[in-house]
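User: structure tokens for Zinc finger protein-like 1 homolog, please.
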Amino acid sequence: CVVQSYLQWLQDSDCNPICTLCNESLKNQDCIRLTCYHVFHWSCLDNYARNLPATTAPAGYTCPSCQSCIFPEANLVSPVADVLKQKLASVNWARAGLGLPL
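Assistant: Done. Predicted tokens:
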């Protein structure tokens, strides 16, 4: 899994692998890696996005760490983007940003 190998790399580096949304270890829950390479617990990112106003345009769904758009470019082909697109397609708030029907 792309996220797990990245988490292992974080563990082996000097970086402290925590979810910046909840300040807890990334090891304890299901995680998602954005195309900007920031990693969050999936439940934290989902909660963050669900709490944005219902009128938020797709470009308004940004990474909590760097403000890059959460949604990968439609033509981006990479293991990280593929996993992210699959996970985002499972939640209604993200389907419009991926160009999918609700």
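User: Anything notable?

Assistant: The radius of gyration is 13 Å.
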